[in-house]
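ingest -> validate -> predict -> emit
validate: passed (alphabet ok, no gaps, 91 aa)
predict: started
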Amino acid sequence: MIDKKATIQAHAKSDKDTGSTAVQVALLSARINNLGAHLAENKKDKHGQRGLQLMNGQRRRLLKYLERTNYDEYIALTDQLKIRRGQRIVR
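emit:
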């Protein structure tokens, strides 16, 4: 089970920040890790696998937005959460 309040406090920019991109990515990462552990034990849980794919896609879109808008924060967040990042696409 994830400790939502602790995760929000660890990644919030201010006391009332609960919905910034960094907080959303951190919460999704915690849920993804939790579900990944569940799926390691329950390999036939196809509905859980679909949920994991949806959460990974949502996190990927949020990280793409963060990379586009605030690259330094993106680097810091991916390092802190130990998320692999692809090559930066410069347009």
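The helical segments are 4-11, 21-41, 46-69, 71-81.
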